[in-house]
Amino acid sequence: MTDQPPALVTASWLNEHLDDVKVLDCTTHMTPQPVGPSKITSGRPDFERGHIPGAQHVDMVEDFSDPDGEYPYTLPGAEQIEALLSRLGITNDDTVVLYTQSHLMVATRVWYVLRALGHKKVAILDGGLQGWGDAGYPVTTELALPEPSTYTAHPDAARYASKSDVAAASGSGSTLVVNALSAEQHAGTGGAHYGRPGRIPGSISVPTADILRDASSFVDADQIRQRFLDAGVREGTPVITYCGGGIAATVDAFALELTGHDRWAVYDNSLLEWSSDPANPMDSDA
Fold it and tell me: Per-residue DSSP letters for 116-183?
C-alpha cells in the first residue's frame, strides 16, 4: 500500500485493506500504582486467545522500550527498532496498523515510537479488537509466520523532547507544555504520582479522559480540536505533551495529529524523570 493511511482507521477500512497492511496487536496491561510507574503485564496470552487475522503481537515494554534505559519506558534506539521490524517482516514502505485489547494508550505509545523513529505510514484501529468483533469481522488463533525483511530507521528528533527542552518551553510562552494526566493529578490533589505530586510549572491540562470516548476509542476530531482550543492550544502552536512516564502523553500527541496539528513532541520520560530531580520545580494546588 503506497498511499498515506488515515491516522485513525475504522474496522471496515482495515477489513478492506487487510491484505495490504501489516497489523500489530499491541495489547499490554498497565495497572497504576499509588506512586511511580504502573505495573506491566504482557498481553501475549490475550493475543493467543484471539486476534485479527495476520496480526503479530508486540509488547510496549519488551519490544518498544529501551531495556537499558534509566526509566521504564524510555524510547528505544534505531538499532533495536530496525531488528524488531525486520524480524516482523515490516519494510519502510509498509503501512502499519496498530490495535489493542487493552487501553488505547499502549497503541498510541507504539505509534509514537514508530513516528519518532521515522515511520510515518502508521495508523491506529479505532475501537480496538472489540470494535473489530462488534463489526462482525473474524478473529483467529492462527499465528502469522512473517518472512524477515530489512528495515532502516530514520529518527525524527522533532518528535522527542528532553528535560531541558521542557524546562525551556515551560517559561517561554511560545511552546505549550500539555499534561495528559487527570485533572486531579495535574492539580496535585489526588491520584497516582511519580515522586512528587503536581505538575510541571506553566503546563496546561488536557486529560486523556477528555478526548477519549472510552478506553479504546476517540471522540470525534471536532471535539478534540475544541478541547485543545479551550486549553489554549492554537493552530500552529508548538506543543510538548507529558504525563507520568510518557505513555498517556502519546494519546494527546496522537489526538493533535488526528486534528491536523503537526507541531507536537513528547517528553519521553515525563514526570518519572522530572519529579525525581529536586532541582526541578513542581506546582501544586494542594
Answer: HTT---EEEETTHHHHHHHTT---B-PPP-PPP--------GGGEE-HHHHHHHHTTSSSEEEE-S-H
Residues with Cβ within 8 Å of 242's Cβ and at least 6 positions away in sequence, in order, are 161, 166, 177, 178, 179, 180, 200, 203, 249, 266, 267, 270, 271, 274
Q: What's the pLDDT at 173?
A: 78
The CATH class of 158-274 is alpha beta
pLDDT at 157: 95
Q: In what order do the strands lie in the sheet with 176-179?
A: 160-161, 264-267, 239-242, 176-179, 204-205
Judged against a pLDDT cut of 60, whether residue 239 lies above it is answered with yes
**Is residue 133 predicted with pLDDT exceeding 70?**
yes
530496525: which residue's cell? 82
Residue 2 has pLDDT above 70, yes or no: no
pTM for the whole structure: 0.96
- Greatest distance between any 2 Cα atoms in the chain: 55
Are 102 and 30 a contacting pair, CB within 8 Å? yes
CATH 3.40.250.10 domain range(s) in the chain: 8-155, 158-274
pLDDT tens, position by position, 191-230: 989 989 999 999 999 999 999 999 899 999 999 999 999 9
**The domain made up of 8-155 is a member of CATH 1.10.3430.10:** no
Instruction: Give the number of other Cβ atoms within 10 Å of residue 151's Cβ.
Output: 21
List Cβ neighbours of 203 (8 Å cut-off, separation of 6 or more).
170, 176, 177, 178, 179, 186, 242
Parallel/antiparallel/unpaired status of strands 217-218 and 239-242: unpaired
C-alpha span between 281 and 225 (Å, rounded): 30
Strands (E), 206-275: 212-214, 217-218, 239-242, 264-267
